[in-house]
Amino acid sequence: MKVSINQIITEGLRCPNSIINFKDRDSGAALNLLQMPNATGKTTIIKLLAATLSGQIRNWSPNKIKSFKSRDNIFDGEFSLTLSIDANNNFSEIKFIVRFDFEHGKVDFNTKRSQEAGEEHGWHPPRELRQYITEGCVDVFCFRGDKVQDLIDKHKEDAEVTIKAFFGISDIDSFLQEIKTHFRNTVAQGSSVNNRAVESKKILLGQWEERFKLLKGKFDDKTTEKTRVENELKDMKEARGGVIAAQENGAINQLAHSKAVKDAEMNVQNSSFECWSALKDPFLISTKLTENLYLIRGILEKMKLPGGSRTFFEEMIEKDENCICGDELTEAKISHIQASIESYLGNDEINIVNQIKEEIKIAHNNHNNGDNLKSLFSDLKKSVTARDLARIDELEFLQDAKDQSGTENREIFDNYKAKGIEDDQLERALKTLSKDYKVSAPNQSNLKSCNSYIAAEGMITQLSNELGVMSNMVHDVEANALLNKVILSARKNSLEKIKDRVKILTNEKILESLPAGSEIEINKFEKYLQLGWNGAEQEEGSGAQNIIVAYSFVRAVLEEAAIEFPLIVDHPFTNVDFPNRRYLGSKLTTLMHQFIGFLIDTEREGFLQGVNESGESVRYLSLFRIEEQNKVFIDKIEKLEEKLYFKSSNGILCYDKKFFIENKMGKY
Amino acid sequence: MFRMHKNASMWGKNLIDKNGPIKFEFDLYYIFLLVGLGMGRTKILEDEDSKEFTRWYPKSYQSTKHKVAMLLLYSDLKVSGFDISNRQIVKSKIEEILSSDSESLLSDVAGKQLNNYANGGFEVIREKLDVAPGDVSLFLSIIYDEIFPDLFNF
């Protein structure tokens, strides 16, 4: 199945009123590039597009809905999205229409499946499309440029989350949750045993269920808040970047500082891992220790009797009358032999001691590694110093940039800082609320001491099992445990197999897309994509390589799911240098059947040359408001043929390539 | 078998990060233990002040357990002032400490003593650092500079 975006209509929203027509490879241009001045509503369009496609817009809060209202004093708005669907050469079109009531913070969602059927209330995508346009899946092909980094960041799980969303693994988690709930209800209500112990266990279970609901509710609220704050933080970072970019060499210097900090942080992390790994061999901590251990090893060598000789002597003194030498075994001789045997270690200890001896020998042979430890820690110290200096340099640069900005823009820097603190606080709160631990026995009746919904859920499972056993429902307890085990095992195996398959497919696509000799591939698919080459790990590739990896990953996921979607990317080429932007520009048209890129002015250079060199047809779109700041654009547009632009009450959308190339749209 | 003082657990919780080198409580315990054994410092760990965070060696430490047993043997001999070249003394200590019946290779008594060393190590570290730095790289650097030169100097 192939899905393309044909048209977006916006009216009365936070972006200019417009009708934007896109193309795809079949209709003449796989690549659609849309440029808009900052603060025109680029992010608004992307958010509306994603939430309309997934139907999630129906769940938006009144405040969120109201925040999409146009600056004009009107109380209605509309966003519509038209898709074309090619299902085995059966072509159809579907239109989602969202009408906004800003006064009451409500939306009315309608679907138009055909001209004949007209509008139907609700979100009604074709059944075969439904599973691929959930919120999690839409995030896969509709993303911000910085998601590229999130896929390969070892601290993040975006790559695995994508697989879980697209291939139904997340649904298994919901299914497991249903089973848990059913089991709890079964044991809580189905008990035929009535005694005080069972009753008090039921009460405790009920209390833990309440605690779980409370903590899970808090966790969900904080998660939503964190997403909002993260998005705001990204927007603010973007706004701050815009202010800096307007200063002389601002963008280049900012990129250089940010890269220096990131590289330095990566070095510290690698160095810390190396030091920690070296510490796992405690025999190499000190040369004196290694020497003394080797001395003890010599003594240990003498503590083992050869082969079965211990048994031989033990049996001899117990059963024989004469010694091995032929003399009679007197009491004195027996005592002497017994004492001698006892000065050697028994078989039980000797097996452990043999292993220890071997390890001491290895450590002694490698005692120079003590110097290695010294050198590793020296490197760690150097990398920590370098990181701290890079951070200071960046802070000084940002302070200078702030000082050079106007009063209004200085606020952007302060707001960003404050939002960063808010984000950290939320991060900590989420960590506490989702800490995975087992509630200790003394705290099982002290519910308020538990602040993690995961721990609370663990208590519910434990109490349900205990209650089941007490209520003569052992069979149910065992069946529940077995069912969980089977499902979890199937889930794990499926996830691993899909990840393996997607890894292979992604690597094939990387190979197709990167120039010959580019040494980058996915080495391992953990929760993130571990890059490397020929088994050697690499933290990340160049900016362009990372983008190719991310796009190849998305293509592989879609191919494995046997579906094609447009790739919609905000800031597709941030952090890519000039020559690589040019290379990407020449390649992009070959990657997807439809690519919609929301470009900012700093990304154009190099990329547009590359696109031009590809010789492919491209849809160029420029969208801006009709307002004083854009007078220069408006004057130029009015000299163009009317068919080349669409003018609404408050905005202009231009399809002219020449206009796009000649006019950069960024910060006012 | 592995127990840690509640204060030690609280003190080090910010150092634990599943994406960093110190991923779980055993990693924290291990660094405390190295310092305790290396300084020959024990502090009795009472059950009521501590909790058992794991019964067995984690998978990633399976290959270290023989070494840990040996270091316990060595430090205990040294701290008690015994001559490590005296075969009888070494043998008797081995019999006291090692147990092939135990997954940790340690007897019950030795297991408790191991926890006492880890607790002693925590005290040594806390004397240098009232509060654990949130940054693991900094923590490792400080430990290496300030404490490692004194380890196993007996």
SSE inventory with pairings:
The complex is a heterodimer of chains A (about 675) and B (about 150).
Chain A: E1 2-11, E2 18-21, E3 31-35, H1 42-54, H2 62-66, E4 76-87, E5 90-101, E6 106-112, E7 119-121, H3 127-130, H4 135-141, E8 142-144, H5 147-152, H6 158-166, H7 169-190, H8 196-245, H9 250-279, H10 287-301, H11 309-319, H12 331-342, H13 347-365, H14 369-404, H15 407-433, H16 453-470, H17 474-513, E9 521-525, E10 529-533, E11 536-538, H18 543-560, E12 567-570, H19 578-591, E13 595-599, H20 601-614, E14 618-625, H21 631-637, E15 645-647, E16 651-654, H22 657-662
Parallel strand pairs in A: 3-13, 3-14, 8-12, 12-13
Antiparallel strand pairs in A: 1-2, 1-4, 4-5, 5-6, 6-7, 9-10, 10-11, 14-16, 15-16
Helix pairs in contact in A: 4-6, 7-16, 7-17, 8-9, 8-15, 8-16, 9-14, 10-13, 11-12, 17-18, 18-19, 19-20
Chain B: E1 2-5, H1 6-12, H2 25-39, E2 50-54, H3 65-79, H4 87-97, H5 108-128, H6 136-146
Antiparallel strand pairs in B: 1-2
Helix pairs in contact in B: 2-5, 3-4
Provide a quick synopsis of the model.
The complex is a heterodimer of chains A (668) and B (154). With 668 residues, chain A is α+β, with helices and mostly antiparallel strands. In chain A, 57% of the residues lie in helices and 14% in strands.
Q: How would you describe the overall organization of this protein?
A:
With 668 residues, chain A is α+β, with helices and mostly antiparallel strands. Among the domains of chain A are: 228 residues, P-loop containing nucleotide triphosphate hydrolases (Rossmann fold); 114 residues, no CATH class; 91 residues, no CATH class. Chain A is built from 22 helices and 16 strands. In chain A, helix 9 runs antiparallel to helix 14. The two termini of chain A are 42 Å apart. In chain A, 34% of the residues are buried. The model of chain A has no long low-confidence stretch (mean pLDDT 87). In chain B, strands 1-2 form a two-stranded antiparallel sheet. Chain B has one domain. The longest helix of chain B has 21 residues. In chain B, helix 2 packs across helix 5 and helix 3 packs across helix 4. Chain B has 154 residues and is mainly alpha-helical. The chains are: A alpha+beta (668), B mainly alpha (154).
